[in-house]
Predict the structure of L,D-transpeptidase catalytic domain.
Amino acid sequence: MRLRYAPRSIARMLSLCSVATITAIAQPSFAAGQQSDIPAWLAVHVGQGDGQVARPVLQRARALYMRKVSEGKVRNPCYFAMDATRPNDLGDGKSGGRFYIVCEATQTFRVVSSGHGSGRDLKGVANFGNGRMCAKNFGNAMDSNLTTGGAYMTEETKTTFKGYYRSSQAKNVAFLRSFLQFDGEGDTANARQRAIGGHAAAKVAGICMKKDPQSPYANRDGFVPLGKLVEYAGGRSDGCTSWSASDANQIISMVKDNPTTLYIYPESTDINAVAKAVAAGRSPAQAGLYWNDSCLKEIGAPKFWAKETLEPVIVQYKKDHPAPPARPIPICE
């Protein structure tokens, strides 16, 4: 069931945050966000522990949401936030919660897992790859597979057939994956060109081609792809926001024909400021900044790769290392 905001609720929400306060929240400094207008029920979820959201992440997410509501672009009673400085893969098959679903009209707060961009290692040229646990590299270059922090809005959803997989009942099941497109601004303005959005962290791998001319997904020769369903909620993505299949279904249904905002932390200014503080031997907190402590120990210092400098490198690497001819997909035995 889709919730709707009554006009009175929107007015009450907007009254909580003056223009001056929104401007202050939007600044990258952690210290700048200490004066809080966060309602009491939501404030209990603020912190850096498990199941909590860091204060600057929430404040910026609320500011973005309220701005889009005031502009008439959002009516959805819920908004999203993500803290990409938190760990993702916690080991033993556990994923870290760092994607937040906030519905202030119903006073609900939920934390789910979400993957980060894998980045790439261009051998001998540039290494901007990320591990499974923590993201060190961020950026907005085409074909970089990096997460870009900043402001987004959810847009249309496209569902595509990804192949068949064999279920536990030994039946072949068609896997249809929905992709929720994001639109951005500033560093995230090229989200559509980069095909950045949200989807389930699942794919059909190890594909062979099976003869099934009766399938609605069969190619002109009557074959369909068949493989194994692989879920990677604790893994990485090509820069998109990936969730478990059940969480993806809920999130995408929440914004169907009813867009909302997503704020991803950190932005390029945060990354550069934290890197500068680390280089000077100061902790982010000492510099009035925010970064998750455990991930900072893991990565040493973060780096933002701007598209203006990284895209030419990627383009040249492709020219110097052309992809081999595609091999034909084998026929299933």
Observations:
- The longest strand covers residues 150-166.
